[in-house]
Amino acid sequence: MSTQTQTKPVSEEQGWLKQSSNTSLEEVNNTVSVPNKGGFWRKLLAFAGPGSLVAVGYVDPGNWATSIAGGARFGYTLLIVILLSNLVAMLLQALSAKLGIVTGRDLAQATRDATGRKTGFFLWILTELAIIATDLAEVIGSAIALNLLFGIPLLLGIAITTLDVLLLLYLQKKSFRIIESIVIVLMVTIFVVFAFEVIASKPEISALFGGFVPKMEIVTNPSMLFISLGILGATVMPHNLYLHSSIVQSRQYKRTIEGKREAIKFSLIDSTFSLTGAFFINSAILILGAAAFYGTNLDVSEIEAAYALLSPTLGVGIASTLFAVALLASGQNATITGTISGQIVMEGFIHLRISPWLRRLITRLLAVVPAFIVTWVAGSKGTGELLLWSQVVLSLALPFAVVPLVLFTSDKKKMGEFANKLPVKILAWICTVVIVALNIFLIGYIVVTGQEIG
């Protein structure tokens, strides 16, 4: 099976489409028809949506503490790191979408086809661990937000997050488009909140723009370098690559060469626009940390501390509350995409089909249970340690998603005329080598020192 799939030209991809049509996303009314005729904006609207689901992974609660601490300790200097990280993410997500559109296979399915059952099972375990690790940040972030907003204890907040599964089940039965719309609303909410926070913090404009200029100090200063690596390492999430290659197939359009070319164009616009929004949000988080806390000697290494100090520092009473609202929106957003990714990799890697409600419940509980136990035993300090080791799992899983993605999209037998051109291929491999090297460095640092980045 592997050999046949590897050598199968694009013209025979209908066999792949028939294999992949029995996916979890087909169980719901998730398809969106693309008009054969119509203007640019009408078609763009039809293709819009998947990019927002993907962008969620770049503004999840796991990134907040690092960005705030980076701004508080080093001002605007690390804004260039956020910019470069986002550009790499745009490239890899574009390749992921192209793989799904051209081959009719998501990244998990394509990897299983090329490697076989045993390797597919190993990669499924590794990817599931990465999704659980990512979900831990969302679970803990949502619990912290509930605690800050309503005084709900962390343990109860973690338990409440299991209810997300029931809501997701209901929404998917209605329409996948509804989920995309909710995600967009939550992303806009986060954006508006941080726009207000940044304006209220009155950042120094010249220093802010200066932060987008590369500085040698980022490499020579160990503390600055470690936080930079933390930002880079947390930017490209492996589950996002699997997710994007699957959900772009939810659009109904003509599977001709011209139709695919048009789909690639509009999916690129969709993902680039959404990831640009994620870039502004991540930049705003660091700018807020810099404007509010840089030079104050206040310890804002944790989200709770930033919440407590934000209103007094800015002199705006509602600032802390809005911060917690944005955190809750971020946690709920990322929860949706993590759960959907879980069902995609399960069916893609091991061809296991179970009831939708059971699959999503398992995905959620695998993240909730360890977070609940550790919080119960060790309190908030324990959740910090848990998040630390979740970074290690993510770092281990990332190369197993990025390397196959670049290989597949560069393969003319799979992609035909859509295979990566030489400049894209070189750039993609440079990004891959950098990502893998940085993640290996991160793992070594965490394992050897047992300390969190920064």
TrEMBL record:
| Single Gene Ontology MF annotation | manganese ion transmembrane transporter activity
Gene Ontology terms: cellular component: plasma membrane
State the Pfam families in the record. Answer: Nramp (PF01566)
**Annotated transmembrane regions:** 74-95, 121-144, 150-171, 178-200, 224-243, 264-294, 306-329, 361-380, 386-407, 427-448
Its keywords, alphabetically, are: Cell membrane, Ion transport, Membrane, Symport, Transmembrane, Transmembrane helix, Transport
Question: What is any one GO biological process for this UniProt entry?
Answer: iron ion transmembrane transport
Membrane topology listed for this record: Multi-pass membrane protein
> Mainly resides where?
membrane
Where is this protein found? Cell membrane; Membrane
Q: Where is this region: Disordered?
A: 1-22
NCBIfam families tied to this protein = nramp, Nramp_1, PRK00701.1
| Free-text function comment from the UniProt entry | H(+)-stimulated, divalent metal cation uptake system.
Record's HAMAP family?
NRAMP
Q: Give the record's family classification.
A: Belongs to the NRAMP family.
What PANTHER family has UniProt attached to this entry?
NATURAL RESISTANCE-ASSOCIATED MACROPHAGE PROTEIN 2 (PTHR11706:SF33), SOLUTE CARRIER PROTEIN FAMILY 11 MEMBER (PTHR11706)
Q: What is this protein called?
A: Divalent metal cation transporter MntH
- The gene behind this protein is mntH
